[in-house]
Amino acid sequence: METTLRDQVEAALHTVYDPEIPVNIFDLGLVYNIEIGDDGQVLVVMTLTAPGCPVAGTIMQEVNDKILAIEGVTGADVRLTFDPPWTKEMMTEEARLELGFM
Prior knowledge:
The protein has about 100 residues and is an alpha+beta fold. The chain has a single domain, classed as GMP Synthetase, Chain A, domain 3 (2-Layer Sandwich), CATH 3.30.300. Helices cover about 30% and strands about 20% of the residues. The chain has three helices and three strands, in the order αββαβα. It comes from Chitinophaga cymbidii. This is MIP18 family-like domain-containing protein. Pfam families: FeS_assembly_P.
Protein backbone atom coordinates (compact mmCIF):
# COMPACT_ATOMS: atom_id res chain seq x y z
CA MET A 1 0.00 0.00 0.00
CA GLU A 2 1.34 3.39 -0.99
CA THR A 3 1.89 5.92 1.76
CA THR A 4 0.38 9.28 0.90
CA LEU A 5 1.90 12.61 1.82
CA ARG A 6 -0.96 13.07 4.29
CA ASP A 7 -0.09 9.72 5.92
CA GLN A 8 3.51 10.89 6.27
CA VAL A 9 2.46 14.22 7.77
CA GLU A 10 0.19 12.45 10.26
CA ALA A 11 2.99 10.02 11.14
CA ALA A 12 5.36 12.95 11.73
CA LEU A 13 2.79 14.64 14.00
CA HIS A 14 2.56 11.43 16.03
CA THR A 15 6.24 12.00 16.98
CA VAL A 16 5.67 15.47 18.49
CA TYR A 17 4.90 15.47 22.21
CA ASP A 18 3.70 18.08 24.64
CA PRO A 19 6.56 18.01 27.19
CA GLU A 20 4.10 18.08 30.10
CA ILE A 21 1.91 15.21 28.82
CA PRO A 22 3.32 11.84 27.66
CA VAL A 23 1.02 11.68 24.62
CA ASN A 24 1.66 12.97 21.09
CA ILE A 25 -0.13 16.09 19.85
CA PHE A 26 -2.14 14.15 17.25
CA ASP A 27 -3.67 11.75 19.78
CA LEU A 28 -4.20 14.63 22.22
CA GLY A 29 -6.51 16.17 19.59
CA LEU A 30 -4.39 19.30 19.24
CA VAL A 31 -4.27 19.05 15.42
CA TYR A 32 -7.48 20.55 14.04
CA ASN A 33 -6.75 20.54 10.31
CA ILE A 34 -4.17 19.39 7.77
CA GLU A 35 -4.27 20.68 4.21
CA ILE A 36 -1.85 19.57 1.53
CA GLY A 37 -1.61 21.53 -1.69
CA ASP A 38 -0.79 20.03 -5.08
CA ASP A 39 2.53 21.88 -4.90
CA GLY A 40 3.59 20.14 -1.67
CA GLN A 41 2.70 23.01 0.64
CA VAL A 42 1.38 21.76 3.99
CA LEU A 43 -0.89 23.77 6.28
CA VAL A 44 -1.42 22.55 9.83
CA VAL A 45 -3.92 24.29 12.09
CA MET A 46 -3.42 23.29 15.69
CA THR A 47 -4.06 24.36 19.23
CA LEU A 48 -2.48 23.85 22.63
CA THR A 49 -3.91 22.43 25.83
CA ALA A 50 -3.81 25.94 27.35
CA PRO A 51 -3.43 29.42 25.80
CA GLY A 52 -0.54 30.24 28.14
CA CYS A 53 1.43 27.11 27.28
CA PRO A 54 5.10 28.00 27.93
CA VAL A 55 6.37 25.64 25.19
CA ALA A 56 4.05 26.86 22.41
CA GLY A 57 6.88 28.16 20.24
CA THR A 58 8.94 25.01 20.73
CA ILE A 59 6.08 22.67 19.80
CA MET A 60 5.14 24.71 16.73
CA GLN A 61 8.77 24.82 15.57
CA GLU A 62 9.08 21.04 16.02
CA VAL A 63 5.90 20.50 13.97
CA ASN A 64 7.27 22.80 11.26
CA ASP A 65 10.68 21.09 11.19
CA LYS A 66 9.26 17.57 11.07
CA ILE A 67 6.88 18.42 8.24
CA LEU A 68 9.64 20.09 6.22
CA ALA A 69 11.80 16.96 6.62
CA ILE A 70 9.25 14.87 4.66
CA GLU A 71 10.22 14.19 1.07
CA GLY A 72 7.86 15.97 -1.30
CA VAL A 73 6.96 18.77 1.11
CA THR A 74 7.88 22.16 -0.34
CA GLY A 75 6.76 24.31 2.57
CA ALA A 76 5.04 24.24 5.94
CA ASP A 77 2.64 26.72 7.47
CA VAL A 78 1.83 25.94 11.11
CA ARG A 79 -0.95 28.09 12.51
CA LEU A 80 -2.12 28.32 16.08
CA THR A 81 -5.77 28.74 17.01
CA PHE A 82 -7.78 28.59 20.20
CA ASP A 83 -11.14 28.36 18.44
CA PRO A 84 -12.59 26.02 19.43
CA PRO A 85 -10.83 25.70 22.79
CA TRP A 86 -9.25 22.30 23.38
CA THR A 87 -11.03 19.89 25.71
CA LYS A 88 -10.17 16.40 26.96
CA GLU A 89 -12.97 15.02 24.77
CA MET A 90 -10.83 15.80 21.69
CA MET A 91 -8.30 13.13 22.64
CA THR A 92 -8.32 9.70 21.06
CA GLU A 93 -9.64 6.87 23.17
CA GLU A 94 -6.08 5.54 23.49
CA ALA A 95 -4.84 8.88 24.82
CA ARG A 96 -7.68 9.11 27.35
CA LEU A 97 -6.92 5.56 28.51
CA GLU A 98 -3.20 6.30 28.83
CA LEU A 99 -3.88 9.42 30.89
CA GLY A 100 -6.60 7.80 33.00
CA PHE A 101 -9.53 9.86 31.69
CA MET A 102 -11.81 6.87 30.94
